[in-house]
Design goal:
This protein is α/β, with parallel strands linked by helices. Helices cover 29% and strands 22% of the residues.
Length: 90
Amino acid sequence: MRFGFVGLGQMGAPMAANLAGTNDVKVFDLSEDAMNAAVEAGASKAESAAAFAEVEVLITCLPSGGIVERSLFDSADRHRPASDGGYNCR
């Protein structure tokens, strides 16, 4: 399965590392050290938001709902339903 992780702190880092052992995991964090540790565990570094376009599951482990919202949605395309019943997050 293809996973994406945004936020590799106390909760996100171990979750991403566990999944990276048997899955394709792309990660992003503001901390290069956190991303490098995830890469050492088997994940791949997402160079941009576009890298998450092909994941099947996107997991965010961020400090607040406001940060999650700003990370996933821009004001012009907010909460636009996708054809598969999910949401387009670009």
